[in-house]
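Reproducibility note. Readers wishing to regenerate the assembly model reported in the main text can use the exact inputs given here. Chain order matters: entities are listed in the order in which they were concatenated for prediction.
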Amino acid sequence: MMIHLSPPHHHGGDSIRANMLAVILALMPATACAVWLYGWLAVWQILTCISVCMLGEWAALRLMRRPSRLHDGSAALTGLLLALVLPAAVPWWMTVFGALFAILLGKQVYGGLGYNPFNPALSARVVLLISFPLAMTSWLIPATGSGGLDVYNAAQTLHFFFAGTLPPGLSLDGITAATPLGYTKTDALQGISIPDSLATHHYSYIDAFIGSEGGSLGETSALALLLGGIYLIARGVIRWHIPLSYLLTVALLASLSNALAPAHYAPPLFHLLAGGLMLCAFYMATDPVSSPVTARGQIVFGAGCGLITWVIRQWGGYPEGAMFAVLLMNCTVPLIDHYCRPRVYGYERRP
Amino acid sequence: MRRLLEHIWGRKPFDGGVVLDMHKDGAQVPITDCPLPEVLIHPLKQHIGETCKPLVAVGDHVLRGQNIARSQGYVSAPVHAGTSGTVVRIEEHPVPHPSGLGMLCIFIEADGEDRRQPLGVMMTNWLQRDPAQLRERIRAAGITGLGGAGFPTFIKLLRDQRHPVNTVILNGIECEPWLTHDQRLMTERSDDIVHGLAILMHMTGADHGVIAIEDNKPEAIAAMQDAIHSWQCECEHIASTSVRLEVLPTRYPQGSEKQLIQAITGKEVPAGKLPLHVGVLCQNISSTLAIYRAITAAEPLTERVVTVSGQGMPAPANLRVRLGTPIRYVLAHCGLDQLDGMQIIHGGPMMGERLKHPEAPVVKSTTGLLLIPDDTLYAEHQPEEPCIRCGHCGDACPIRLVPNLMADLIRDQQFEQAEGYQLFDCIECGCCSYVCPSHIPLVHYFRYGKGQLAQLRQERAFAEASRQRSEQRMARLEQEKAAKAARRQKARARSKVATRTADKQQEPPA
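Running the prediction on these inputs yields the following structure tokens for the assembly.
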């Protein structure tokens, strides 16, 4: 232990643990929403993710003969974040693989907490998406929807999660449905305009805001995510710069394109409420380790995320681009940090 | 008028900073005298600049206020005897300094009479005096910045035609937790402080005087307001000058000169320049009182008010202490004989230093003595954790540096890169370390980096000098060689001619 004699001899009492716990607390509305929509299945996913992440962290640190860091809550947070971006219907071994990837290859190989260039949960999600594209794009119909699995039945969900068996009379196709981003994209390929596509699928902004649409466990409810995000900003755990510039960029690009060609480009509110944008903007892009530290840099970073998200959604091969956007922008962080330093007191110009 | 000034200057607070738990326990405790010890210890350097040279020898009898060590060089401040008595020793002794190293000190054994020697005449008519004369008096009185920095005060009072001072700011911020000495002085001696401000305004020719106080000192604010009011009634004839009180929201490090100037005037002191360059003179409250006493009472600086407080101190005190009093003696006077398990902080908790030897004396820059029990001193119990790049340090930095990136570079020994991130502009206020959730001792890193860079520069200068020397030597050798060759050639030519003539001479006999 290093004993330093330099001042200050006083400390504000903030700690890594307090920051991590605050984010976990902020994710509670979204977690509650996941449990409401996907019942026991959400519980199994979240518990598996968190416990495997913590186990992975413990084992990795033990292997490296480093002191345990489980108490700081960062592994648990990674686990929770990963669970919330997974579709409810992925089998247990995929979840375990993803969680181990997040901790071992997403974080510990770079040197552990503070050294990972990419967001661990998002990199694991992308690896899963690329490795298992079918499972990762099968969206279980939430409990609010008609038909499907009885997610409030613990035994039934356990069977489904661990053995992949469905109750008689149900098929995987029967219990899954496309997300709004997914069906607008496939409809567009068939030449159906955005307004028509939304109308045929009975799209509603209210549903999208509350979260009763299909999607990953914790990404659907914009309301729950916003609540937690505002809490984090108010507590000073994250700054407003990244989420605001991220969301504003998407909104701006969507408004412009929608105003020019409403048939081909979805309106801004649709974009803001769809997919993983809210979750990425408030919880993934703001991951302190893999985002810039300066305010100006954070605005650039958020704008970059917004641009890439919108471009992938419009023209990419995947319906959703938020996670790719954040990971791509993660690469640019050292550069952004270097060039976006603020003007130092007493100097005319920025460095 | 005030609104107009605010309109002209604008009112911007400073960037960054933190709100601290102020623990101003001693705010209601009146200033009392600390008794005189048997021996006073006067270090030869209590300021920023050159060490003084002793003027007395062992066995000499001195009076209180007698100059016992003369300043050497321009940036220096003389030292005066704290009481009348005999010089008993001149030797190395621990002083309050982060290095813990000792320094040559003059020991004076008090004779108990405490007879004074004035600096000269009492300049009660200072308004009629030439500023240069007043400045010389301040220099001779050995006054330094009593807020802790210890920069010789007279240097700041140089009148520069190119940079006229239009505002004198009295720094009554006292933003460090626990310290209350300036607050008490403002409450108890407000009239003298306003007179001190008037002297400074007369000396600099400034039109505006501002007394800046944070809003957590209501008593001091009220007292200063009364004092300003009565001074204004008294001096109605000086119409061109204005003195006002500025109450600022409590925020650390507002008492730092650069941040205070920014908070009051909205201007930033350009990098590498002095407050003078934005037309401002900033003076500490204690220094201003010392200036007032030096001019009107011809008293050199031989005492100061010190706050003794901290978690380990049951009853905080504001003590008028004779400079040179051993710190152990001051603490014993406060009822603290047992110092085991206790850390003594010399100064405030944010920028003060841990005192390694309680035998060290109170010096001009001793603002406070804080007693912190070992088990509440956070550094001992919080190991450094990895940086999570949360950026709180950058948000708190009043200079707008990016502390975590600088610390990364220093950790990787890339000192010159860190310098490119304006490492030398860091004022070491400690805000970054204070807010860091990973408990990274950032200030410690920056001091280390600055030290390494200074060493690097020195080594480089040395290498450059030796390179030049060797080049000169090579050139000289080359020159000598060429000269030798030329001489040889000349000699050869001469000998050739000689042999030829010799041959000619030898011819006939053959």
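We highlight two features of this model. The two ends of chain A are 36 Å apart (CA to CA). Chain A has a mean pLDDT of 91.
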